[in-house]
């Protein structure tokens, strides 16, 4: 083949590669969704809600099915933090109903997961730690209601969700779920089930204080802000986790007026986000990444080959320089294409979660917690200048208490 024909052929190949790459560029980036228009019934539903929840309910209806689970989680926590337990129940139940369709320990759920993955995970179902925390909040509400059997079932389900990581199952290490499953069983009058849960907790946290059989007060304190999800890597197809921002509190000391004590940190939500079965995770890469990486490698190889050809073109004759330029062009186009075929990481996340959960149990006659105060220290034990936060006190019909505290308003 003479140099003119070679030049024409290589330019045609390069042009085709560039067209293909640039065509891919038109579809880059996350899919843009237009807000759905609210119908009259939905408008009424929004205006019927408390003012602080109205923007969240509007978002629920505007974003539709693809974000329904996420928005239900956000509404549920916002309502729980305000003490609106009816709305919290309603929204967590709705979120968990969808989650259980996909993530349960049965054949139907396995089939649902298969179909769901084939559809590209368009609808938000959350990472394992998010699904587990939905069961955590629902279980705490069951405890508040004195429904100990349902509370235990919810915490056990949370442990199961922690074990699910895509299609791989791992050992659960969600300590707060183990503690609360044991507490629920204890209140059910099932010491054997309680001891089984506490044994799991001891294996995971040997030094953690186990509740006494006659304790009637459970204190849960939440600190910090939710882990964040970010897109990383070429084409932003890798999902990585980062700690929440703009908080320093890591330890909680309670002053009840009668005594002062530090709460035991039982769970790091950030650790749960960044681990699977106790093993750290650097990133989560979606299904198409392997194919796209192959394409990217090919592009790099061709680009390098093109540079090499240009370097040696004086020794090989003029045509090799044109070949080198063309191969380099194809290589760059191929790498651009690879960035476009990778699905961008799904960085939607449950923003109202805490960074950590702290706890204590005791035997006490609790009449009022309105005068209770909390103080905080950072990771090094230095005081953190922060207001005492919110306390909520619930007593069930059997005389057991749940005292919930947050260092931050949500």
UniProtKB/TrEMBL annotation:
SMART domains: TPR (SM00028). SUPFAM superfamilies: TPR-like (SSF48452). It comes from the Bacteria. This is Tetratricopeptide repeat protein. InterPro entries: TPR-like_helical_dom_sf, TPR_rpt. Residues 1-23 form the signal peptide. Keywords: Signal.
